[in-house]
Amino acid sequence: ARKIFNREAPHYVAYDFIGIKGNHEKMSSSSGNSITPSNLLKVYIPEVILFMFAKYKPGAAFHIGLD
């Protein structure tokens, strides 16, 4: 990044926890209650998904409504 853009590469910061509204369990693939991007696209258009993530700072926890 420094050679091309003359600046350091951005630092990745993951979201703390993303859950499903109304479900009080922790989302995990081993428990079978995880959501894939393709599943979200069955409910929301891409711009809405982008907005849901963009309105929270990385490192924050938030919940996604599927109703």
Automatic annotation (TrEMBL):
InterPro entries: Lys-tRNA-ligase (IPR002904), Lys-tRNA-ligase_SC_fold (IPR042078), Ser/Thr-sp_prot-phosphatase (IPR006186). GO terms for molecular function: ATP binding; hydrolase activity; lysine-tRNA ligase activity. Keywords: Cytoplasm, Ligase. Signal peptide: none annotated. It comes from Bacillus cereus. Pfam families: tRNA-synt_1f. GO terms for cellular component: cytoplasm. Gene3D superfamilies: Lysine tRNA ligase, stem contact fold domain (6.10.20.10). This is Lysine--tRNA ligase. Residues 20-25 form the Serine/threonine specific protein phosphatases domain.
